[in-house]
Amino acid sequence: MNFIGSHILSVSQFKRADIETVFNVADQMIPYANRERVTRVLEGAILGNMFFEPSTRTRVSFGCAWNLLGGEVRETSEVKASSIVKGESFYDTARVLSGYSDAIVMRHQVEGSVDEFATASRVPVINGGDGSNEHPSQALLDLYTIKKEMEGRGKQVDGLRIALIGDLRYGRAVHSLCRLLCLYDDIHFSLVSPPELKLPSIYLDEMKSHGHECLESAQLQSGIAHADILYVTRTQEERFPSKEEADKYKGLFRLNQTIYTENCEPNTVIMHPLPRDSRGDARELDDDLNENPNLAIFRQTDNGVVIRMALFALILNVADQVEKTARDVNWYTAGRFSSQ
Amino acid sequence: MNFIGSHILSVSQFKRADIETVFNVADQMIPYANRERVTRVLEGAILGNMFFEPSTRTRVSFGCAWNLLGGEVRETSEVKASSIVKGESFYDTARVLSGYSDAIVMRHQVEGSVDEFATASRVPVINGGDGSNEHPSQALLDLYTIKKEMEGRGKQVDGLRIALIGDLRYGRAVHSLCRLLCLYDDIHFSLVSPPELKLPSIYLDEMKSHGHECLESAQLQSGIAHADILYVTRTQEERFPSKEEADKYKGLFRLNQTIYTENCEPNTVIMHPLPRDSRGDARELDDDLNENPNLAIFRQTDNGVVIRMALFALILNVADQVEKTARDVNWYTAGRFSSQ
Amino acid sequence: MNFIGSHILSVSQFKRADIETVFNVADQMIPYANRERVTRVLEGAILGNMFFEPSTRTRVSFGCAWNLLGGEVRETSEVKASSIVKGESFYDTARVLSGYSDAIVMRHQVEGSVDEFATASRVPVINGGDGSNEHPSQALLDLYTIKKEMEGRGKQVDGLRIALIGDLRYGRAVHSLCRLLCLYDDIHFSLVSPPELKLPSIYLDEMKSHGHECLESAQLQSGIAHADILYVTRTQEERFPSKEEADKYKGLFRLNQTIYTENCEPNTVIMHPLPRDSRGDARELDDDLNENPNLAIFRQTDNGVVIRMALFALILNVADQVEKTARDVNWYTAGRFSSQ
Domain B137-298 in CATH: superfamily? Predict the structure, then answer.
């Protein structure tokens, strides 16, 4: 694909070579995200960080990625603040807002809304999540983390053995990750979920058609054995018909250090798209894993910054110029990143 | 008027020469808003973008204008976030906040609140809308758009034939625009509204006293013939005693491509202060006009950026210095602006 | 204490020498806060300004202080916007957010929350207020103001006579100020409050154990005589069991110009942590004091900016570099600050 000026709306846009382009640029961004170097390559550029659904993590991550390239961020963080409540169409909102910024990140709870918005926008749009549909930068950061963790263990993504655990039915992050992994070779999927929350067949069929191994199970202990990566998910409460319905599945597949030690191979990586639910009856990933060096969940969010920097740099065509305006960081930063 | 250090609170502050000063500086801002050039003239300056009433468009437009001059923005976007709920006076709020920034934009639903605030502020204040009272930058961007569109057609503001359509009673934007047009010569107003939503006589009398022609009508088709500009407005629901009362007038004067073709002269410009209501029963400007090149509504919002840049540059006395710190844009921007 | 890389969580961290370090750096920040000079020392650095409880003043003050050092601000201003509502622990929130910024300011209504957050954070955290517990930068700016005002009158903090007036039971600002004043010599406290809202004995005992004079009284007129500083507080409605309970004490100790003139020594300084309640039945500081040059309440908030700049500069170890990247301000700033 040609990144320059294009929208990033769906993981379906990416071929394997595109992903490798993103990951190579992301690697170049590490010294900046890690606060060793400062670049001003986007000094004077403005990001419209338009979150029409509450979010702290993703909103701040995108804003931070833009700031790290030297640009400014204008922001909205709730639907009430918008002209949309006065009956404005996505078309109008997009035409107007795209006159204010050089790129836009948009999150909105309506599926397809970001596509509609992008069609009318005069500047590149990145989908920051449209309901249960797409959230491509999350899938990219997950895959980037898998690649990095595998490389740290002398392996690669091809041949990966991954266990996907929990709510595989409503989990947008899981769906997109499955899509991206289809672009790689010889993936072994262990799909662990309650029968009612199984991975939809549209994804399962696609994975099988690419020749990947897919084993479904409702049993955590056997499902996580022989995996390189455990990808644990939260029950997506907000996508269920009712809270009561969602609560039935809360805490069903809780991973803790004992279960990990007894069932997993050494150095099995633990991932989660976050936030994890840490309330007593839910907690799908126990706090006793926090000191486990294989817990990669915060390396995932750190990696989100460099992935988003890479996407911005590619669509605005400044990847080659980042170093030109760079210098060493002059303030205290010791011990900042757990990442890498 | 002397712009340096002054508040911008009302369209009544402006004489024709002042408006021309603003428009000349706005013209200089086009390469920056259009992302051909970057300036850092306000690098280190801080805008307090204080919106005590929900707004996305206007808030982001002001913030973007400041960023385009190189400055930083600190922001509030809702009344709940404020000390005002703990009984703080506008005087105190103004004294405190004006210690944090180099200029303030304020929106508040209470009429006269921004005047009261400005009196106590130690830095220049721009009124971003105080209830149904004033919103001077909207009126300036409307007039600037009229001037630009007329010039593109070999005409000028003097001698303008303009049809004002819809809710002329509660529409703040219409009122302020009428005030500004009084400063020009030989304006022909066609005022099209339901009898109950006619332009208040205070404005009508002022227009007539300046020798302008004012024809009132409740008939869309005849009202829009022979106009250079159609200025269509939304029913200002939020100003009506009740939603039911407002709904009576929704969709009364709907302009679409057929009506336009049958009644208007070629190249008649279509304007709207936005947001336009695109819900089925309301839509005062039909979507089928979106491809009409005379639809100037997004050129209006684009023009809002340069008008706000001009106001900031004038009150902070940096208009002459903008180019000194400027350079060419180094990132992808092709196809960004529909404006001009 | 060693400031570099450390959290600022409580006034208890500070010894007298530490406070003097902060105040010396704050003094160096005056030309920047006063818009005579611009520095870019933190250009490229990002502050996570995380306010999980509504606040305009404190949030904007911290953000402004960071901007004045040249850095960028990413922000949250309400708990709803947060993953915390999805059951995320402070540990996780801190791990994630500390990957996005170079320092974090956090406000949260839960006492102790900021400590818990700081323990997990990978970057320095400043407590911006955790419920009724701590808000150290407020105490520091109050003490800095006292020092400045005393110096302007040829006096110093040692030997200070200060009247604390109003809700001394729930007022977080008063408690922290008392703690800090214990580090100085020979302070004379006049504690004026309704019997039910007396200063808690934990503070009183500490003050006495340092040899300071503490006189308690329920009588305003006699309590404010012979004071150098009057420190007036708002009834902390939100800390009371009910609004009715709080209302009983509203307006009990109202200071106005007449009472001031009749009872105070010339040039007695009037302070207040703000916001002051200006509603008719409350107003603890009457508007007729607004022209009194001894009213220092807006000098306090101005001083808050330089104190926060100093804290940032110290924990990020750039205090010595501020001037290196500095230049004169090039925009209009006349008459900006009442401070000094």
Answer: Aspartate/ornithine carbamoyltransferase (3.40.50.1370)
